[in-house]
Write a structure and sequence with these properties.
By secondary structure, the chain is α/β, with parallel strands linked by helices. It folds into two domains: 2-209, Spore Coat Polysaccharide Biosynthesis Protein SpsA, Chain A; 213-320, no CATH class. 22% of the residues lie in helices and 30% in strands. It contains seven helices and 27 strands. The chain has helices at 30-40, 54-63, 81-88, 90-93, 111-121, 182-193, 213-226; strands at residues 2-3, 24-25, 28-29, 46-50, 71-75, 98-102, 105-107, 125-131, 141-144, 147-151, 159-167, 198-202, 207-209, 236-238, 243-245, 253-255, 257-259, 263-264, 269-271, 274-275, 280-281, 286-288, 291-292, 296-297, 302-304, 306-309, 317-320. The strands form six sheets. The chain has a nine-stranded mixed sheet, sandwiched between helices. Strands 14-15-17-20-23-26-27 form a seven-stranded mixed sheet. It has a four-stranded parallel sheet with strand order 16-19-22-25, with no helix packed on it.
Length: 322
């Protein structure tokens, strides 16, 4: 189950026009990247819940086919939350254990290892976690040996849920109707009532929550510094300049940047930035630490630490990254 219904409020105004699952992280829309990895892992079918701009996600997947398991959409006229989405799809999910993946997470999970840990334990839930470097910002998880024992608090070794887990269908019966969340309405009641145990597996690779523009840009730069891994559809990576581009760069300078199919004028400079498809950048413009997500950047304009956004053919306005 790929959770893709969120409103993306921390990424406004971009998400007023583009749903976050279609954001091109490292030049590949998030929904496409997740579906490709699930296909590679041998997943037999994917449910996608839809609410905010869900029609755009459906349209993209219909018009841009790629490697993916068969997909079934679960539309939510009223948003149901991360747990409510599972209850809404409970009949479809009832056949056996299933994966849950947040669409706005930047992660390459080891799905086989997670599934193996889940099956070995016999538990109803197994969460993929990583070390929590910001427990004041992200809910810390506490563990004892191989199980999660609490959400919140100040554990000595705080863990962070990556947005990926395996659940048993017997848990679906305990989710109340309406808008419900995984922690408050499923996992915390399990722990409080001691009905089930929740296991965990430590994710060994990179992980980023893409909640804000600053998070998105930080994750982009970290991936470029590491040199990948990148999906085949992400374009060509030039290691000396750390530039990932879908088209050959000509007439402008770029360093540590991800560049989609954009129009970039001669003499422009792109430093530690992400430029999305369809953006127009005038000659001699300079972007440092920016996400150019839409619209037109005027010739010789200079922006730093900004989210640049405008509709096609209009001048992009600058917004703070936070």
């Amino acid at each position: 189950m790929l959770l893709a219904a969120g409103r993306g409020v921390r990424f406004r105004p971009v998400t007023e026009s583009v749903p976050k699952p279609l954001f091109p992280f490292l030049n590949v829309p998030l929904v496409r990247a997740h579906l490709s990895r699930l296909a590679e892992a041998g997943v037999s079918g994917v449910g996608i819940n839809l609410h905010h701009l869900g029609g755009a996600i459906e349209k993209y997947l219909a018009e841009q086919p790629g490697p993916a398991p068969p997909v079934r959409f679960f539309r939510e006229p009223e948003i149901l939350g991360t747990a409510g989405a599972l209850r809404n799809a409970s009949e479809w999910l009832s056949d056996g254990d299933f994966l849950v993946v947040n669409a706005d997470a930047a992660i390459e999970p080891d799905f086989p290892a997670l599934i193996a840990r889940h099956r070995e334990s016999g538990r109803a839930a197994t969460l993929l976690v990583t070390e929590n470097a910001e427990p004041a910002r992200f809910t810390p998880l506490a563990s004892e040996r191989d199980r999660i024992v609490s959400f919140g608090g100040q554990p000595a070794w705080p863990l962070l849920y990556t947005g990926v887990c395996v659940l048993a269908p017997r848990l679906l019966r305990g989710i109340p109707d309406g808008e419900r969340q995984l922690v408050a309405d499923l996992w915390q009641p399990i722990l409080d009532e001691r009905r089930e145990e929740i296991g965990w597996l430590l994710h060994e690779g990179p992980f980023s929550d893409l909640g804000t523009p600053r998070d998105f840009l930080r994750a982009t730069r970290q991936a470029l510094t590491r040199g990948g891994p990148f999906l085949p559809s992400a374009g060509v990576f030039d290691a000396p300049t750390r530039v990932l581009s879908l088209e050959r760069s000509r007439g402008f300078e770029a360093v540590s940047s991800a560049i989609g199919r954009a129009s970039i004028g001669r003499g422009s400079r792109l430093i530690e930035s992400a430029v999305w498809d369809g953006v127009e950048i005038g000659a001699g413009a300079e972007l440092r630490g920016c996400i150019a997500a839409g619209g037109r950047v005027a010739a010789r304009a200079s922006f730093r630490d900004s989210l640049l956004w405008g509709r096609p053919g209009t001048n992009a306005e600058a917004y703070p990254l936070n």
